[in-house]
Amino acid sequence: MQKNIQTKSDYLAVLAAQAAAEKLGFETIVIDVGEVIGITDFFVVTSCNNRRHMETIREEIEASLLEVEKIKPLRIEGKESNQWMLIDYGIFVVHIFDREWRSFYNLERLWLDQPTLNWEK
């Protein structure tokens, strides 16, 4: 089930997804997990081709959110990883995976029963 942007947290998660797409992140999805996990409202999940691509996507997300909304991540994990990076903004968390690790963790399957946000323009 897809839903449209309704709240400020929806908007911020969508902004992150659009920033990832701007740098050619692919298979991007915004999953509404707020009702079931309580520590964040959304997971933004995107894929990249390699380490450099992962870093480029991270930089674009950070720059876009800082420029438009003046917010910075609370923490970033996996900066040295070639497989996965997490950017925690509190109300949403961005996961950037390389293809193989995304397939392995398959977050979409874990949250299959949760709605997704319609983020594409």
Task: Walk me through this protein's architecture.
With 121 residues, the chain is α/β, with parallel strands linked by helices. The protein is 40% helix and 27% strand. The protein contains 5 helices and 7 strands; from the N terminus they run βαβαβαβββααβ. β4 and β5 (84-88) form a beta hairpin. The chain is globular and about 35 Å long. The model has no long low-confidence stretch (mean pLDDT 93).
Percent helix, as a range, is 40-55%
Q: Termini distance?
A: 18 Å
Compressed to H and E, one letter per element, the order equals: EHEHEHEEEHHE
Nearest-angstrom radius of gyration? 13 Å
Oligomer: single chain
Mean pLDDT across every amino acid position: 93
- Estimated share of beta-strand residues: 25-35%
Q: List the strand order in the largest sheet.
A: 2-3-6-5-4
Strand count, sense and barrel status of the largest sheet are:
5 strands, mixed
Helix segment tally: 5
Number of strands: 7
Structural class category: alpha/beta
Q: Tell the overall outline.
A: globular
Poorly predicted runs: none
Summarize the topology.
Layout: E1 2-3, H1 8-22, E2 26-32, H2 34-37, E3 42-48, H3 51-69, E4 75-77, E5 84-88, E6 92-98, H4 99-105, H5 107-110, E7 116-117
Parallel strand pairs: 1-7, 3-6
Antiparallel strand pairs: 2-3, 4-5, 5-6
Helix pairs in contact: 1-3
Any descriptors?
121 residues; alpha/beta; five-stranded mixed β-sheet; two-stranded parallel sheet; 5 helices; 40% helix; globular
